[in-house]
Amino acid sequence: MDFRVMGLESPLFHTLHRMMDMSEDGAGDKTHNAPTRSYVRDANAMAATPADVKEYPNSYVFEIDMPGLKSGDIKVQIEDDNVLVISGERKREEEKEGGKYLRMERRVGKFMRKFVLPENTNTDAISAVCQDGVLSVTVHKLPPPEPKKPKTIQVK
Predict the structure, then answer these.
(1) Which of 27, 120, 136, 147 is the most buried (most CB within 10 A)?
(2) Is the confidence at residue 113, as pLDDT, over 70?
(3) Which pLDDT score is estimated for 41?
(4) pLDDT for 122 beyond 80
(5) 68 with 75: CB under 8 angstroms?
């Protein structure tokens, strides 16, 4: 269909026309910029993992609720020298014989959060503690650099 014939030559109608053509012609074609399944899965995992970040004079503290998880189920890593990655998997309990779920509301599956750390962090001094269902990851700050003192050069 040619929208110019109907007097509709605006960019909006041109874009709508392109979108309609893509849905008809390229239904199975992945040439347009659709997100991959792994990207959608990771985005959902990150959205489902809320976190609190606190700054103290000597450190940053990341707090994430991890109810029912053991420390072995949680992974804390540093990627690319400045990205803190907290991930893991929450699994469903095995059903006991004769019992069945009437309602399933607790989240299961993989979770992940990524935080880009500031430049003043000491990635060699990171500690993680999971207590009472709350994971606390402490990233210590580097001491501030000493101001450069003027260098005196002796005149000969």
Answers:
(1) 136
(2) yes
(3) 60
(4) yes
(5) no
Name the one residue in this structure whose structure tokens are 């993992």. Answer: 49
Task: Return d(Cα 112, Cα 87) in angstroms, integer.
Answer: 4
The 3-state secondary structure of the chain reads: CCCCCCCCCCHHHHHHHHHHHHHHHCCCCCCCCCCCHHHHHHHHHHHCCCEEEEECCCEEEEEEECCCCCHHHEEEEEECCCEEEEEEEECCCCCCCCCCCCCCCCCCEEEEEEEECCCCEEEEEEEEEEECCEEEEEEEECCCCCCCCCCCCCCC
Instruction: Indicate if the alpha-carbon torsion angle 81, 117, 67, 112 is positive or negative.
Output: negative
Q: Which of 25-29, 40-44, 71-75 has the lowest mean pLDDT?
A: 25-29
CA distance 44 to 112: 9
Amino acid at 16: L
Residues in the chain: 156
Positive or negative: CA dihedral 120, 123, 125, 127: positive
**Cα dihedral value 83, 32, 34, 38, nearest 10:** -60
How far CA 48 is from CA of 98, 118, 134, 149, in Å, comes to 32, 24, 15, 49
